[in-house]
Give the backbone structure.
Amino acid sequence: MLEALRDADAVLAGVEPYSSELLAALPRLRCISRCGVGTDAIDLKAAQRLNIKVLTTGDEVVEPVAQMTVAMILALARNIPLHYAEFHAGLWLKRTAYLLSEWTIGLIGFGRIGRRVESYLRVFGARALVYDPYITLSQLSSGTRFCSLGEVLSESDLISIHAARSRSDGPIIGRAEIASMKRGSRIVNTARSYLVDEAALHEALKSGQLSAAALDVFDSEPYAGSLGQLPQVLCTPHVASLTRASRVAMELHCAMNVVDFFGRELYQDQQAESVDFKKDGKKPYYEK
């Protein structure tokens, strides 16, 4: 990457890593425009220190990730991962499922995606509990209850993760948190892999403490670990935001972020030149 970016003033970034060492070796770089919302692969402190602007395309991921989350919740409610595995193994087994109106669903994180998921769950009649230390009660819709993390974990039939948190802060859901959940409950994670302890999740699924999980994010990608071997786990390859419409919109926004960034810089430079012109009487180059 160093050779490819050596002369770059800006980069349209995916999920590739931008370490402090790499950023320090790119003296011309002034803008990283991430096609997506996560910035975990970028050393943000180094970028700030080196005056490199980091931009994202957060708006475009809300709808596809929310829809994917609800699809996963419905899949677990109707035992689709197990039915799929058993059917392809030549078994004809019928499992009684659930309506979402029978469930209490806990949302950990109530930003734009969490709020969109909650609005869709409301249509199905699900009861929603919310844990997010950064929101106010005025942001909750009628019928949605704000709770402590402990209350959300102990009362929910399914937990859906929508939080933003640094990897260095560790998982939100570890062994202790899983132990406090209802026996037989479920987890959906379309946010960040490190928010859930994968080893603890695997143990809980094997023991029956959790009955199912749906995951779109993993500690190591491509993922080839043991969670993918469990029939009650629905795994997808980090595709929650990958729809035709959202991808086109994200890529356009990613490019426009760079255009806007340098456009603002040019405008600021022109404003500065205009001030200098008033002082020395010289006409700036952009004035006709």
Observations:
- Confidence is low (pLDDT under 50) at residues 282-288.
